[in-house]
Amino acid sequence: MTSNLRRRHLFMWIGILVILPVLMILAIINIPKFPVNDQLVEIASSNKGAVLKTAITDNVELKLIEAASKKILEIQILQPLKASSATVHILNDDLSKGDFIGQISAKGIYKFPIEKEINGISIFDHIKGEEITKIQF
Amino acid sequence: MGLDYQTILWNKHKKVYDKLILAFMLMYLLVFAGLTFTFNAQTTIETLIIRAFGTLAVIMLHIILAIGPISRLNTSFLPLLYNRRHLGVSMFLAAAVHGVFSMIQFHTLGNVNPVYSIFTSNLDYTSLTNFPFQVLGFVALIILFFMAATSHDFWLKNLSPSVWKKLHMMVYVAYALIILHVFLGAFQQETSPFTIGFLSIGFVTIVSLHLIAGFNEVKTDTKKSEKDESNWLYVCRTGEIEEDRAKIFTVDKERVAIFKYEGKLSAIHNVCKHQGGPLGEGKIVDGCITCPWHGYQYLPGNGQSPPPFTEKVATYELKLVKDKIYLNPEAFPEGTEVKPVNC
Q1: Do the Cβ atoms of B109 and A127 come within 8 Å?
Q2: ipTM of this predicted complex?
Q3: Average pLDDT over every residue of B278-284
Q4: Which pLDDT value is given to residue B9?
Q5: Who among B188, B207, B278 is closest to A16 (CB)?
Q6: Which helix (H) or strand (E) holds A107?
Q7: CB A112 within 8 A of CB A101
């Protein structure tokens, strides 16, 4: 190697040493502290209310909350779901997949307005066409 | 060194190294598949392929990037450096399998072009945390493709060594993109600390090796040499150079190779015109200085490649005082005939 090339190599590695960790640290700092993915912002922002029903599994915590005479279904994803597509449906009385409520993705809290009484939910992977899990209150 | 281009200039070492590369890749893929099915039996075959080849490519890239500085720090690793090209192409193939399967798995189910989908499926380009990491991997794969495709003397000759070298130094950009691709991917879709942990260990190791080797070179470049009354630099005693081998000496931050052969001494610039290989780490074969990287040859007396080749390097004047070798630091123009010193 010529001296120019040696110097270029060294500067490149010094650059990599500085830039990459800075970007990584900034990425970590920029993680939202409360990863809330709201579908109904005004309801989600008033987080107070009476918890009517709860259910919990290894991956998902479910709460049915009543606030300002409206019912909200709160889904907290505790561990990432191993599916590229996850939609939430009301669980029918016969435990089959009912009406579509909304879509969930990464770890975090999701809130959906609920019009009627529900017994649980079904989380469905539409790409694979199979149920990921069902949770009953 | 040859007049025509061959797909691969095989020799017995290359065959052994290629077999070792293939065995390593197969063994890694089998171990990865075995561990995956043992600890995560729900994994689909597509996901297994994506992850196995992706991790394999990252490991191979780290090995490739480690070879350069390790050979600078310990010359017994030099044979790995001379055979790095096939490892690079194999690494690209592993990365390409990862990239193509990822594209098929995640971007061919929609109604838009898969490449367009990579760039538009996540538009959070202003976020550091949720930046579309697949774009980083895609750009890195394109760089690796051009590097693998031009890893041949035909392209080196036709692009010119300078352009070729610049293109191949893009591996550092590709490395940075791949580190961020894996980091953000693991960050956004994984919870296991192992991915980030292994990646951090690899990053620290590679950067440390390059910086240690780089600063060692700076130290060598700035080393002061003893001068005689006419400003010639003292190199070493004749007995310190093996027959048909060279001593590498630094003159104004540039390296000069002083060869001893047939009772004579000659000095030429250390950098091969082909790919910048260190001529002083090579030896005299059939009367010619032979570059250890790809066998390019130069006559020790004038630094010219034997006809019909046209490469030539700068030459230097030597003198002998008793058994002490002195070198005139002023280089002659490339290819200048200099009478060897008898020793």
Answers
A1: yes
A2: 0.81
A3: 89
A4: 60
A5: B207
A6: none
A7: yes
B49 in A contact zone (CB under 8 Å): no
B276/A2 Cβ within 8 A = yes
- Contact in structure between B255 and B278 (CB atoms under 8 Å): yes
- To which residue do tokens 């070798």 refer? B325
What are the boundaries of each domain within chain B?
Answer: 12-220, 233-342
Q: Which amino acid is at A97?
A: K
Residue B62: CA count within 13 A, CB half-sphere: 17
- What does the pLDDT look like over A69-97, one tens digit per residue? 888 888 888 877 777 678 899 888 888 88
Q: Which amino acid is at B85?
A: R
Shortest Cα distance, chain B CAs vs residue A82, angstroms: 9
Between positions 124 and 143 of B, the ones with CB within 8 A of A are: 127-129, 131
Q: Model's pTM, two decimal places?
A: 0.73
Do B254 and A3 lie within an 8 Å CB cutoff? Answer: yes
Cβ B229 vs Cβ B88: under 8 Å: no
CATH class of B233-342: mainly beta
User: Which residues of A have a CB under 8 Å from any CB of B?
Assistant: 1-3, 5-6, 8-10, 12-14, 16-17, 19-20, 23-24, 26-28, 30-32, 79-80, 82, 84, 106-107, 127
Residue B201 makes CB contacts below 8 A (sequence gap 6+) with: none
Cβ atoms of B108 and B114 closer than 8 Å:
yes
Cβ <8 Å between B276 and A14: no
**CA nearest B249: which of B190, B325, B139, B163?**
B325
| Inter-chain touch B278–A1, beta carbons under 8 Å | yes
CA distance A73 to chain B (A): 24
Average pLDDT over residues B241-258: 91
Q: Tens digit of pLDDT per residue, chain A (137 long)?
A: 788 888 889 999 999 999 999 998 888 887 765 444 544 444 444 556 788 888 988 888 888 888 878 888 888 888 777 776 788 998 888 888 888 888 887 777 888 888 888 889 999 887 777 888 889 88
C-alpha to C-alpha distance for B310 and B334, rounded to whole angstroms: 11
